[in-house]
Amino acid sequence: MIYLRSFKISSYTDRNPNIYPDHVFRHIAGEVLWFDRITVLYGNNGSGKSTLLNVIANKLNIKGAEKMTSHGHSIYVQRFLEMSSCQFGQDEREQEIRQLPDGSRYLKSEDIMYEIKKIQQSSVLREALLHEQRSKGKSQDQVEEYEASYAFAKKLDDIQFSQEKYSNGETSMQFFEEYLLPGQLYLLDEPETSLSPANQIKLAEQINELARYFDSQFIIATHSPFVLGTLNAKIYNLDTTPLQTAAWFELDNVRFFYRFFDKHKRLFE
């Protein structure tokens, strides 16, 4: 299922080179990205791939979108968002989708690391579980009652046991198995964080399966050669002007790995 068909980047660029986020996308201003079931935003550091993912999340107003006001340019951010546009996909009756699935969300690498830290630190974990209850509308009395319950203690023990048993990478894989569900739109920023190459490939295969068989759509920012080489994805190379798509083996970061191992290939023979 294609929930988000396209996104057009604002064509207006302020003449002031310090205006954010205009200056980040100066080289691809006005470009339109057309999305498949899996679309990758590739680029080296500073290319704007993570920023673009967050811009899309803010434009869609989906869960996890990070407010773009920390740079002190809220007026310019709002202008950029207003001058950018998106087009939704179509449902089974070929009618334009009016809203995204409720579970759609934007997941940053920091979110994943926070989940790991949350279960590494008991006090942080305890507060996070109680905050979850408050966010569901529970009163303070109900939260305190829950904190004193067997169910709370059991959940705390289960998560802490999981952390003792599994590494950061394995915990990340558990996180994705819990959060990546059928029939949703997911914006993922560098999901390979803390994952071994084998687990990066395993995650990419899971994403392929969800997109092909279970009506999920993914827009992913990454420069991992293992993820890029495994995903059945359209890849936008944000390092090029004008904006272009590319095959994974054409990308600079992937070819860097190839040259490195080719240089040392005698060690493997």
From TrEMBL:
SMART domains on file: AAA
Residue intervals passing through the bilayer: none
UniProt xrefs under CDD domains: ABC_ATPase
Ranges for domain AAA+ ATPase: 35-261
InterPro entries reported in the protein's UniProt record: AAA+_ATPase, ATPase_AAA_core, Bact_Antivir_Def_Nuclease, P-loop_NTPase
Top-level taxon of origin: Bacteria
Record PANTHER family: AAA+ ATPASE DOMAIN-CONTAINING PROTEIN, ATP/GTP PHOSPHATASE
Protein name as it appears in the record: AAA family ATPase
